[in-house]
Design goal:
Strand content of chain B: 15-25%
CATH architecture of the largest domain in chain A: 3-Layer(aba) Sandwich
Chains: A alpha/beta (289), B alpha/beta (280), C alpha+beta (372)
Number of domains of chain B: 1
Shape of chain B: globular
Oligomer: heterotrimer
Helix content of chain A: 25-40%
CATH superfamily of the largest domain in chain A: Bacterial phosphonate metabolism protein PhnH
Structural class of chain B: alpha/beta
Number of strands of chain B: 9
Distance between the termini of chain A: 68 Å
Radius of gyration of chain B: 19 Å
Strand order of the largest sheet of chain A: 1-9-8-5-4-2-3
Bound molecules: adenosine-5'-triphosphate, magnesium ion, zinc ion
Strand content of chain A: 15-25%
Largest sheet of chain B: 6 strands, mixed
Radius of gyration of chain A: 20 Å
Strand order of the largest sheet of chain B: 5-6-7-3-8-9
CATH topology of chain B: Rossmann fold
Order of helices and strands of chain A: HEHEHEEEHHEEHEEEEEH
Chain lengths: 289, 280, 372
């Protein structure tokens, strides 16, 4: 048997073209889930194949790629995806958010604001925000078409009745461009506001569910909330990163091995490292001065 | 009152279940048992029904079981498609448009903003797995309300009106008795003060004291909010109490139509006569 | 010098992959792809069927690489399939022209052409054969030679036979409705994602590439009570069918301008299902419909289960989940179900932190309410 060579960026050009066409449509209709013929990828369905297909259809030789999972460049699945893209494209990899032109991420949007020269690709497990309320795709499609969203509002209302507040965690639904209710992917509520008027193009890909959708730059994105029960991000008030001292970032909660106490640390690892290096620089320069 | 334009107007509504066969499609060879074609099983649930509902009035619909009352209501509320006919609503936005030809989105809008409905079977009107207060809020949310405290206030008031104890408002109707479910449904239908309200056998299955309260409530909201209603019942006593005008249905057709008092005093059709005499 | 992120992930993955390789190699035995191909016929068939890629050699290679894991082998082939350009659709396959190896009807004893048991496990007694533990090449040689001798006579007076479809016999009697041939190109589920209501061609494609266990379970559930299809197996046939593609020369319409590209082995099932239909006078009548099942290789259980589900999905006006096309079609794919279940192994630290925050806030709110 002759050994087959894999194509640049794995997918054949026909597939890439089809994915890009779906992507263009998604950009043209912000928040609308565009169906596409999702390919089987060499990583598991549910392990970021939607994001991966977007990345592979977009990546060119000039691109600089960053892949993160749970905020970390070194998370095993991020490494695995990076490895796959790199081995089929040879593109430059980076951990520095500001250096990347293409960022694929699972469950986080980086802490530093993204720019108009960057594209953020988010991996999506369940693209349908109405699924908890209505199990049939045939019907949810109709509900979107008719902009009939009382069901999802009712879910939030029920939470308030039962628990005194909305009890959503990650993947808190958003209204995009005042038209489509959209699942922002399981990013924490902390990251939802970063979607609003984002300078970078945000693309969301669900491989198993075969949907692509988008938040184009400068689009209105509002987290669903009632007038008298405002949307609330995860609360880290009073806490700071034990390494770099950052506040107002999404923090991981850890237990200190020695003291047994709860400590906090930046979830965005490259952000933390960057801050540490800058702090060190300042110290050096003050010593020099 | 009759000089006004009707708020809701039905013209020549027909509703069939089934495609029909050669025999029943042709009126001359049609040989129905009541409203049923024995050779193909087709049901003529509503046949050429026309009616007008005037602002602020309660229109009663009586008729025996299976005469097509619920089918009529479901067509009016867009739950089922009609076979043929026209429906007009006196409303700036939809003036002169046959509502049955509108898009699903527009129909939904009308349901959410212009209509209230209480189904004969509460399963159709309630989400049995959501709280009772949530069920009421659903209607308000659909009509655009985004204020939780306001919706809660409205819901509490309505639940109180229909005698659902407030400490049970966060329970699911699934756990309620049939009569309680019916009352939650009424509260839900009333929540957004719809200009048009459909009530299908609302008091059936309620005990007499609650029944009296509900009838009172219906009278009151008619007076206070000027809501126009179509009230379906097989119980002429209920119709007598509520309806200004009444139509009588038999086998899918309207057989009599007039002021309620007149129909009660001087029924013309033999079926209506039987119905009225049995009440006395 | 500066701070750098720890390289834990990269190293861990590298080490894990090495360890996996060691697990495959530590027994110090080489299994030839050829051996798998020649001895694991039904495993190879099943992998090809679930992967929807007909290539016994690649399937055997995948089985070797996956250390015999079905879900992994199927996954490997599917991923490989993604890299291949798709150049042609074949001409419609005529299964009546199948080179039949096995063909039975559970509905009629005497079917035109006769019943042919062929190779089947059905009548073996499932007793472990301990002799196989010491089987030698010489044993195999001896047995096959002897068997070849025995069947020589039988073969000599047999001639190539035509096996008409059992259903045609009943169709002539008017028990099955006759439909005009539908020569429309099927909707390709690998090129266009499913939308509902799905076309029959889409449903059949998803069913035929479904995970054997999943298709069987749902067919079984339907049969046992969670469904309303009560089939008789009209015909099961197993054998090779030739595949042709049309000439790319569009000007020629000649029939013989198609290219033979090879054979595939198929299992095909036609189940007979009684249904209520209406005649031209709109009166109700009892009639038969066909539940259709087909898959690569010999996999009769899956094909029969598929024929049940095909009829279930033809009659969706039914409260059972087995008649609900979204329920059936969305959940039987091996790569999708195993992928999503196994993704739960991925870290969910961020979502959990978010959930913690939410639960704590609810608790805090309660406590404050109680104080107030
Ligand atoms: N989904 C359906 N399919 C077939 N026939 C139907 C359907 N729904 C209603 N029907 C038939 O339509 C006719 C009218 O039914 P409908 O429910 O409108 O009667 P009704 O006047 O409301 O009776 P009741 O007083 O018992 O509620 C009946 O013969 C019924 O069998
Ligand atoms: Mg009724
Ligand atoms: Zn930090």
């Amino acid at each position: 048997m002759k050994k087959l060579k894999t194509h640049f960026a794995f997918l054949d050009e026909g597939s890439k073209k089809e994915i890009r066409r779906a992507t263009l449509k998604a950009v043209a209709i912000p928040g609308y889930q565009v169906p596409f013929a999702s390919r089987e990828m060499p990583i598991g369905r549910g392990w970021g194949t939607g994001g991966l297909q977007l990345t592979l259809s977009l990546v060119g030789k000039e691109d600089v790629l960053k892949v993160i999972d749970q905020g970390a460049d070194e998370s095993v699945n991020a490494v695995s995806i990076k490895k796959l893209v790199h081995s089929t494209t040879n593109v430059e990899l980076t951990e520095a958010t500001e250096d990347a032109t293409l960022i694929q991420s699972r469950h986080r949007i980086p802490e530093i604001p993204l720019t108009k020269d960057q594209i953020l690709v988010l991996q999506v497990p369940m693209p349908e925000p109405l699924r908890t309320y209505e199990k049939k795709e045939y019907i949810t499609k109709m509900l979107h078409a008719e902009k009939e969203y009382s069901g999802i509002w009712l879910m939030l209302f029920e939470q308030i009745m039962k628990y005194g507040r909305t009890s959503t965690d990650a993947d808190h639904p958003v209204l995009v461009n005042e038209r489509y209710v959209m699942a922002p992917s399981p990013i924490p509520r902390f990251d939802n506001p970063k979607m609003h008027h984002s300078e970078a193009l945000i693309l969301l890909g669900a491989g198993r569910e075969k949907k692509i959708y988008a938040v184009p730059p400068y689009t209105d994105v509002a987290s669903l909330a009632f007038d008298d029960y405002v949307f609330q991000k995860e609360d880290f008030s009073g806490e700071a990163c034990h390494l770099c001292g950052a506040t107002d970032v999404f923090l991981d909660e850890l237990v200190d091995d020695h003291t047994g106490k709860t400590i906090y640390q930046c979830n965005d690892t490259s952000y933390c490292v960057d801050r540490l290096n800058k702090l060190e620089q300042e110290e050096v320069s003050t010593v020099d001065a | 009152m009759m000089l006004e334009e009707p708020i809701l107007s039905v013209k020549n509504l027909s509703k069939q279940f089934g495609d029909g066969c050669r025999r029943c499609s042709d009126p001359s060879t049609r040989d129905l048992i009541k409203n049923y074609c024995p050779s193909c099983g087709m049901v003529f649930a509503c046949r050429d029904i026309s009616l007008d509902l005037y602002p602020g009035e309660i229109l009663g619909v009586v008729g025996e079981s299976g005469s097509g009352k619920s089918s009529l209501m479901k067509c009016l509320y867009f739950d089922s498609d009609v076979t043929s006919g026209e429906l007009y609503l006196q409303d700036e936005e939809f003036y002169g448009q046959n509502l049955w030809t509108l898009s699903a989105q527009k129909k939904r809008y009308i349901r959410n903003h212009k209509y209230g409905m209480v189904y004969q079977n509460p399963v159709h009107g309630l989400k049995m797995d959501f709280t009772s207060i949530g069920n009421i809020a659903e209607k308000l949310i659909a009509a655009g309300n985004r204020n939780v405290d306001n919706m809660k206030m409205v819901g509490e008031k309505l639940l109180d009106t229909v005698h659902i104890p407030l400490f049970r408002m966060k329970e699911e109707p699934r756990n309620f008795s049939g009569g309680m479910q019916q009352r939650v449904q009424i509260a839900k239908a009333l929540s957004n003060n719809p200009p048009v309200l459909f009530l299908d056998e609302v008091t059936t299955g309620l005990d007499l004291s609650v029944q009296a309260d509900v009838l009172d409530l219906i009278k009151r909201i008619q007076r206070e909010f000027g809501i126009s209603m179509i009230v379906v019942s097989h119980d002429l006593a209920v119709i007598r109490m509520l309806a200004d005008r009444t139509i009588v249905m038999l086998n899918g057709e309207v057989i009599e139509n007039g002021l309620t008092d007149q129909i009660l005093e001087d029924p013309i059709h033999p079926y209506t006569q039987t119905l009225v005499y049995s009440l006395l | 010098m500066g701070y750098v992120a720890v390289k834990g992930g990269t190293n861990a993955i590298e080490a894990s992959i090495q360890r996996l390789k060691y697990e495959r190699l530590k027994g110090k035995e080489v299994i030839e792809v050829e051996t798998i191909l020649k001895t694991m016929r039904q495993l190879v068939d099943q992998v090809m069927s679930e992967a929807s890629l007909y290539s016994p050699y690649l399937a055997a290679l995948a089985i070797k690489q996956a250390e015999g894991s079905m879900e992994e082998a199927v996954f490997l082939l599917r991923a490989h399939r993604s890299t291949l350009p798709r150049l042609y659709y074949s001409q419609t396959v005529n299964t009546e022209a199948m080179f039949v190896e096995r063909r039975i009807s559970a509905s009629f004893k005497d079917i035109p052409g006769g019943q042919i048991l062929g190779a089947t496990h059905d009548y073996t007694h499932r007793l472990l054969d301990f002799d196989l533990a010491a089987e030698t090449k010489a044993d195999i040689e001896k047995w096959t030679n002897q068997w070849m001798e025995e069947i020589k006579e039988i073969e000599s007076h047999g001639e190539l036979k035509h096996f008409p479809k059992v259903v045609d016999y009943l169709r002539e009697e008017g028990l099955f409705p006759t439909y005009p041939l539908n020569n429309e190109n099927p909707d390709d589920v690998t090129k266009k994602s499913l939308a509902f209501p799905a076309s029959r061609s889409e449903r059949l494609q998803i069913l035929t590439r479904g995970q054997t266990g999943a298709v069987t379970s749902l067919g079984y559930a339907s049969l046992r009570g969670y469904g309303q299809v009560h089939p008789n197996v009209g015909e099961v046939r197993v054998g090779d069918v030739p595949i042709y593609v049309a000439s790319s020369n569009e000007n020629t319409e000649a029939k013989d301008d198609e290219y033979y590209i090879g054979d595939v082995k198929l299992t095909e099932v036609e189940s007979f299902v009684p249904v209520t239909t209406k005649n031209e006078r709109n009166e109700m009548e009892l009639n038969f419909e066909i539940g259709y099942g087909i898959c690569y290789g010999q996999n009769e259980t899956k094909a029969i289960a598929m024929s049940i589900l095909d009829q279930c999905l033809e009659n969706q006006d039914n409260p059972f989940s087995t008649h609900d096309e979204e329920f059936v079609l969305y959940h039987i794919d091996s790569v999708e179900s195993t992928g999503f279940i196994s993704h739960l192994k991925l870290p969910h630290y961020v979502t959990f932190q978010s959930k913690l925050d939410s639960v704590r806030n609810v608790k805090k709110g309660r406590a404050e309410d109680e104080k107030a």
